[in-house]
Design brief:
- By secondary structure, this protein is mostly helical.
- The chain is built from 4 helices and no strands.
- It has one domain (9-102).
- The longest helix is centred in the middle third of the chain and has 24 residues, at 57-80.
Length: 103
Amino acid sequence: METYIGLDPSTVANRLQLLHGRWRSLFPAYGLVTFADWHPKEHLPRYLNDPKFSDKLYTRQEFLCVYTLAAEHSQAYLRALPKAEQTIYQRWTLPLFPKQLTK
């Protein structure tokens, strides 16, 4: 069984666990209450350089990579839906992180 983009469900589950694990630390640290408060353009660079987290560079980079892929996949899925459904499901997609900021 595969997802619409050919990912194995266990791959998706592993990525979600990694994201959730970091968000459990980031949300309280940055005063985020709901997912609507999450702004990757602001919060990802902040996390990558935040000395109050003991995360190694590899962990931070892995989070950025997994987040970027998950956001791209969720946005691609949204674009594949009929317009009426895009409006319904938009709030559950991950906001994109600008590629130019990953360099």
